[in-house]
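lol so apparently i was supposed to do this last week
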Amino acid sequence: MRVPVLTYHANNISGNDYASNDHVALVEDLRLIHRKGLRIVPLSHVVDVLLGIAPASDVENAVAISFDDGSWFDWHDIEHPTCGPQRGFAGILRDFAAETGAFVHATSFVIVSPGARAILDKTCLIGRGWWGDDWWPEAQREGLIAIESHSWDHNHHTLPITAQRDQRKGTFRTIDTYADAEAEIRQANDWLDARLAPHRVSLFAYPYGESNDYLVRAYLPRHESEHRLRAAFGTKPRPVEVSSNRWLLPRYVCGSDWKSPTELETVLA
Ligand SMILES: [Zn+2]
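anyway here it is w/ zinc ion bound
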């Protein structure tokens, strides 16, 4: 088993070419994946294989796709204030499926707290209400994009108050006590499970790709019945393998780990 997990940020739009726009990159990358004869599988299937629930043949020659932060750009087509109309990630996936007939799926790791998203909509976007969760149940029902957790508030540096006890923000390494982990991880899962039932959240992506020994070696492995997760993803650029630590699985990030189709070919090889 060697499955690259590719990560895109729908909010990354500063131009309309591959290097400056994750939507443009996603369109091209899906075609490249298809041309190379690789399959796209849901990220949860990769975890099934890792945990021995499904056979390795299920993820042979496969890649998985994930999105981070969960804004409207994952779902809706939006007129960007400076870059013009942008096809949402969901539309890009549907276009690809219609064009090729191939199976496509992605997992969106969303920032869960409605209060945090209302502020991030102003501090990271332009305050038009583009970070709503209205589309999450619809996405989950359709089955094209699975909704999973990217923490309660991302411990984001632009928030006036986060769940971190000492307000040490802008990193996830400071989430290193049981109380902080419960507030950032379990609280998010409780909220999502209540809203998206019967779907049960089971995957987590560390904000900023940052973790620490407490989360990886203590909180996540020892409190499974409480947080109910099956795996957690960081951003070490490697494929997921049988030997990977389920509480710190690797992912490649568009714009950091590859910046062109040629560089993605290297990742996929
Ligand atoms: Zn993030």
